[in-house]
Hints:
Elements: H1 10-13, H2 17-22, E1 27-33, H3 45-54, E2 58-63, E3 68-73, H4 78-93, E4 99-102, H5 104-120, E5 126-131, H6 138-145, E6 152-157, E7 160-165, H7 176-183, E8 187-190, H8 191-201
Antiparallel strand pairs: 1-3, 1-4, 2-3, 5-7, 5-8, 6-7
Helix pairs in contact: 5-8
Amino acid sequence: xxxxxxxxxxxxxxxxxxxxxxxxxxxxxxxxxxxxxxxxxxxxxxxxxxxxxxxxxxxxxxxxxxxxxxxxxxxxxxxxxxxxxxxxxxxxxxxxxxxxxxxxxxxxxxxxxxxxxxxxxxxxxxxxxxxxxxxxxxxxxxxxxxxxxxxxxxxxxxxxxxxxxxxxxxxxxxxxxxxxxxxxxxxxxxxxxxxxxxxxxxxx
Length: 204
């Protein structure tokens, strides 16, 4: 994966002077971007790969057009990384891009939870996964699951919320927006996309 990036990109990629001098090891991360390439919020994946590479991140790769990216950084804080990425994306795009950073292990856990939830509550139409910044509190988890209604089941597992539909997505009332009204922000993916990301970038 090479040595540390040039000094000008150290802060953006999570390197510090101390880390660059001590030869800190590179860790792999996955970021899920909220609401890009929809509603007048263009973010070409080629441009996403370019700005992350230019900022000093390593082994950058994307998956489809919904803002799923893997990269290497010596940073050890997902919260810090998310803040740095959001600053970088705002400067490039001119609009805020909420960013949710996962370790490969967290991604694999969300995918495994999705499989278990679907096995218990098999949806006839669709299964979507809203990823949160952190696991909700017990009270918030209960509020989220209480959004369940006829033909719409909501299940909290870790830092993800599973939306299982027995009706078309556009008819459902338990949306990502409803979850955000409780926890502040979330980003939504089809469960098939989560499974594909875990197969490519998950732990092990």
